[in-house]
Write a structure and sequence with these properties.
Length: about 90
């Protein structure tokens, strides 16, 4: 689903306007991204959890030239699926 489809579904389910649903979803994204920027774990109940992990620096290759290059360390987001959402 893309954002428009999510907004349409939320508006229909909550019986609110699409503008209200879009505003609520935008606030939800801001809260989640703000927590992740502070390196806090975010639990999406029934779906999974998001957390930050530190990716180590490593050596890679430039695909165009084949030359070795240094890839710096950085933070990345990890998603862990909830047990109730796993498909078996």
């Amino acid at each position: 689903m893309n954002k428009k489809q999510v907004v349409d579904s939320v508006a229909k389910c909550a019986d609110v306007s699409q503008a209200t649903a879009r505003e609520v979803i935008d606030c939800y994204y801001k809260v989640i991204s703000g927590a992740l920027k502070k390196e806090k774990k975010v639990k999406l109940f029934g779906i999974g959890s998001l957390s930050i992990y530190k990716r180590r620096a490593r050596t890679g290759r430039n695909p165009q030239t084949g030359q070795l290059m240094r890839i710096p360390a950085k933070n990345a987001v990890r998603f862990k699926v909830s047990g109730s959402l796993k498909f078996r």
